[in-house]
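I'll show a typical protein example:
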Amino acid sequence: MSRRKKILLAVLVVALLGGGVLWALDAYLPFGLSELRRPQLAETPPLKPHAPTSTIVVPITIPLAALSASLDAATPRSFSGKRENPMFMPFGKTDINWRISRGPLAVVGRPEGLTLSTTLTGTLHITDQAKSRRTGATASAGTDLQRWVQSLIADALEQRGDVRAIARLTAQPALLPSWRVDPKLRGQISIPEGGLRIAGVAIEVTDEVKAAIDTAVSEELKRMQSRLRAHPLMEQIARREWAKMCGSISLAGVAAGNPNLHLEVRPVRLLASQPVIDATSIRLTFGAQTQMRVMAAPNTLDCAFPPNLEIVEPVQEGRFFIAAPIELSFAEINRLLNQQLGNRTVPEQAAAGQITVHRVRVLPSGERLLIALRVTAREQASWLGLGATATVYLSARPELDRAQQVLRLNDMSIDVQSRAGFGLFGAAARAALPYFANSIERNAVIDLKPFMAGARTGIEAAIVRFDRADDGISTDFAVTDLRIVGVEFDSKILRLMAEVEGRAKVTVSKLPERQP
């Protein structure tokens, strides 16, 4: 074989191999070699961080019966004490010792505050301080008559008595920014006629005895006031609910059929009003300001508990307004469009040329989207039915249809290079391209309703996730309106701006016990 023939043979082999490789790459790569002819992408600036604040304001009703049961369980059943009583008697002072037990607490509500009342029963023990001292001093002095008179008087001063009384406490509870409650307690003791009996005889209550009882009650009120003011109950409840709000919720896990996205909830502030009291209940307003967004993957959040509670005005109706950006990756957008457009043939009726879509990919390009479609075009004018496979590039502008809650790809145009991408057999296919573009524009619609439904169930789950039957808390939360109000994108994500409104109410049937 001559040298020239060898060179020609080698060139032919290389050409065949090269052509075969190019054919294989064009046939089996997702978008073929026509990816090399892809139009230049315009620069798409990154989206600015967007964390709108959502507000949840919830009126909480605490029946007075539940409050009464909680206070009854927390208040001591009995107390005792001692008072020195300077009775101006010939033998000096006496001591008054007492032990008082209370009955059940009754709670009455009025706009000016709460009144707590209970019955008191107990005993008084009156003793002469100087009895033993005088007895020793006079044992060797005086006549028998004098010693007998002194002993008689001392025995008369040492008596036991029964006490019956009614205690009334008034409270004007106020929330403090330090996560505590100042109960503002005041007390009053009423001893009815015959309420004090000594040696079985009803006697008139003297100022000294009344002062002793008032002092005992006052001291017990101070201890109770200090205990209640320092009680961390409100902070415990707030911390518990704060921890439950902070985190990511799987939308797919909340309800079947939801997209595989996650609702991220980050509380930032807690709000509360001063209590409003009436004849049956105490009503408070609690609220939270949060930052929410829907994302493709869950995040581990660290939500610092706020050091102070913000005091606000009370509300009659609970409500929430939530702004929750839904951030979708373009991989998710491509998946949805492939479901919508994959294996679609245009035009569907017989024509000179038909185009079948195999795959779709969306690429951001400035303020528009570049849509790459891997298609096969066939001419139907001859019996040969020749065709070619290529990638067609369409440019479109995303536009939100608020009425239908869908994302449309409008103002669509075909890239010039795409018209020449079908080679020798593309004349009929190129004739079909205008019909193809119109059909793609009609069908390139992303239905946002599944995302809205997922966001709705996720937001409801985020709001009511603290609802537990054993907590003694019942809730009434419902989303009344959810809408997509805007769309924006960068090179990585497409962001849908969702707004949610709803109602909220909480009723407490049992106050939680103090945690150790």
